[in-house]
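User: Some background: our group keeps a shared notebook of sequences we're curious about, and every so often someone picks one and asks for a predicted structure to add to the entry. Today it's my turn. The entry only has the sequence so far, pasted here. Could you supply the structure so I can complete it?
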Amino acid sequence: MAKSIVYKHYQRVLTQWPVDLLRPEVSFQEVMRRRIDKRLLPSSPNTPQQPQDKVRANDALATPAPSQPFDEKGELEQVNALYSLLENRYSKKVPAGAQSIAIHLHIN
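Assistant: Of course. Here's the predicted structure to add to the notebook entry:
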């Protein structure tokens, strides 16, 4: 249940995320969706591992260690960080004028 709530939050924030006009070939949304799907969606035990999941080193085929257990609090903190960036919470807390004055005073 908790995974589905976190998953829905991730999906919601990514649908609202703006497209990078300077680098349209790089999609933050797609990278995050792949990461989230891999991390939060249930995988079938009969599903074979993807080729990128296996690593060849010294002519031996190695499988990466299993991922960390699901941490709902940590995942929700990550989602909250994305929401805060999306909503420009930081620019609203510190106006640009005050921010530039503070930087100027700190440098001098």
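Suggested note for the entry: The beta strands are 55-57, 60-62. DSSP finds five helices and two strands in the chain.
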